[in-house]
Amino acid sequence: MKKSTKLIIALLVTVGFLAVTYCVVNRAPSQELTADVQMQEIITSGGCLRCHSSNPDLPFYANWPVANGMIMKDVTAGYRTFDMTEMAEALKAGKSVGKVALAKVEKVMMDGRMPLHQYYMVHWGSTTTDAKKEMALAWVKQHRLAYYANGLAAAEFANEPIRPIADSLPVDMHKVVLGDMLYHDTRLSADNSISCASCHGLNTGGVDNKRYSEGVGGQFGGVNAPTVYNAAYNFVQFWDGRANTLAEQAAGPPLNPVEMACHSFDEIIAKLQQDVNFTKAFTEVYPEGYSEKSITNAIEEFEKTLLTPNSRFDRYLKGEKSAINDTELTGYELFKKYDCATCHVGETLGGQSYELMGVKRDYFADRGSEMTEEDNGRFKQTKTDRDKHRFKVPGLRNIALTAPYFHDGSIKTMKDAVDYMAKYQVDAILSNEELGEIVAFLETLTGEYKGKPLTNDNSKEL
C-alpha cells in the first residue's frame, strides 16, 4: 500500500474517531428524564457554573501563566452578568426558576452564544448542539407556562418574556379605603407637609418627575423616586431592595429624616388618634387599633390596586394585533434582540432581579459626577462586593410618563435612556432609527388606571 494511501486512511480514521467522540460526549440528555433534570444535565455538561457562580469549579490548568488571565477574565465576566447558582439550586429542588433566569437562558440558546468558543474548544462535551438547544428552549417554554402564565396572553404569545397586567389583584376593600386616605395624608410627616403622594403622585405617573424628591424642610433625597404603579409585582421594593414587601416599603419614608422625618410611628399615631372619625373607621377594620403594622398594611392593600392594565401592548399580547403599528412592533423585536427583555421581563417589564449598572462599560466613571452612597445600590444592604452598583431593575410600564430616568435621575429622555442602556449594558451603539423604534415600543406600555388612560399632569413640563 502506498504511503499516501496509508496517510489518507489514517486521516479518515482519525476524523471518524473524532466525529464519533464528539457525538458521544455531546449527546443530549435522555428523553426519558424530566425537563428539569434534562436542563440540569445541559448546564452541567456545558460547564455553566464554572463561570456563572461565586465558587467556580476551575479546570486544573486555570493557574497556568497564560491560561490564568484568559480564564479569569471569562469567569469574572460570566459571574458579573448572570449568577446561575440560584437557578441550579431551584432545578435540583424542583422549584420555580426566576423569570429573568428563564429569559437569559432562552436568549443565549437562541443566539448560540454559550459556551464561549475558547471553552468548548477544550471541553468538547460543553458544546450546545441543536438537540440540546431544542431541549433547553422547550424547558423554558414549559417552565413559563407552568409557573408564570396568567391566562391573559393569546396562545401565540404565551411564551413571550412579557405578560399582560391583570385587571386587579385580590384585596380587602375596607383596608384599601383606609390605605388610600393614609397614602394622601400629610400627618405621616413630622411637619404635616409631605404625604406618600407628594413623591408618588397618582396624576403624575406614580412619581414626581424630579431628579430627587423634596422632603420635610426642603431637603432632597439622593435617589430617583420609582413609580408606585404596579409596584405590587416587584420582587422587592426600593432600588437597593431593602424592603421585601409593600408594607415594609411604606414604613420607610415616614421615619426617614430627609423624607418625612418622624421619630417613630408613635408620633404619627398620636396625631391620627386626635381624628375621632378616622380613628372610628380605622378600628372597625383593625380592632387592634393603630400600629406601624396596621398602618402600613392598609397602605399596602391600597397600593395593590395601583395597577395599569390594558396598555396598547397588553392588547397586542391578548391577540389584538392592530393595537400597535409596524414601527412599534419592530421596536419590540429590537428590544428583544438587544437583550433588553432578559432583565425587563414579566408583567411590569422589570422588578424581578438585581442587575449591574454598567456590565460592559463603566457608567459611573463616564458620568462625570462624584460617587454617592446611593450609587452602591444593593451593596448598601449586603456589603458583598458583587452587589456594588447593582440595582433592582425598574419596571418599564408607563415609562413615557416617569422621566427622569435611572437611579440617579440623570437621564431626561427615553431616547437617551435607551441609548445609554444599550451602550453600557450590552456594548451596542444603536442607530437613530433603532432608538426611535424602541422608544415607539416603550410608548405602547402606558396603561389605564380606573378604566381611563393614564396621563401625567406634568407632561407639558417634561
TrEMBL record:
<dbReference type="InterPro" id="IPR036909">
    <property type="entry name" value="Cyt_c-like_dom_sf"/>
</dbReference>
<feature type="domain" description="Cytochrome c">
    <location>
        <begin position="35"/>
        <end position="144"/>
    </location>
</feature>
<keyword id="KW-0249">Electron transport</keyword>
<dbReference type="GO" id="GO:0030313">
    <property type="term" value="C:cell envelope"/>
</dbReference>
<dbReference type="GO" id="GO:0009055">
    <property type="term" value="F:electron transfer activity"/>
</dbReference>
<dbReference type="InterPro" id="IPR009056">
    <property type="entry name" value="Cyt_c-like_dom"/>
</dbReference>
<dbReference type="InterPro" id="IPR004852">
    <property type="entry name" value="Di-haem_cyt_c_peroxidsae"/>
</dbReference>
<dbReference type="Pfam" id="PF14376">
    <property type="entry name" value="Haem_bd"/>
</dbReference>
<dbReference type="Pfam" id="PF03150">
    <property type="entry name" value="CCP_MauG"/>
</dbReference>
<dbReference type="GO" id="GO:0004130">
    <property type="term" value="F:cytochrome-c peroxidase activity"/>
</dbReference>
<dbReference type="GO" id="GO:0046872">
    <property type="term" value="F:metal ion binding"/>
</dbReference>
<protein>
    <recommendedName>
        <fullName>Cytochrome c domain-containing protein</fullName>
    </recommendedName>
</protein>
<keyword id="KW-0479">Metal-binding</keyword>
<keyword id="KW-0560">Oxidoreductase</keyword>
<keyword id="KW-0349">Heme</keyword>
<dbReference type="GO" id="GO:0020037">
    <property type="term" value="F:heme binding"/>
</dbReference>
<dbReference type="InterPro" id="IPR025992">
    <property type="entry name" value="Haem-bd"/>
</dbReference>
<feature type="domain" description="Cytochrome c">
    <location>
        <begin position="326"/>
        <end position="446"/>
    </location>
</feature>
<dbReference type="InterPro" id="IPR051395">
    <property type="entry name" value="Cytochrome_c_Peroxidase/MauG"/>
</dbReference>
<keyword id="KW-0408">Iron</keyword>
<keyword id="KW-0813">Transport</keyword>
<keyword id="KW-0575">Peroxidase</keyword>
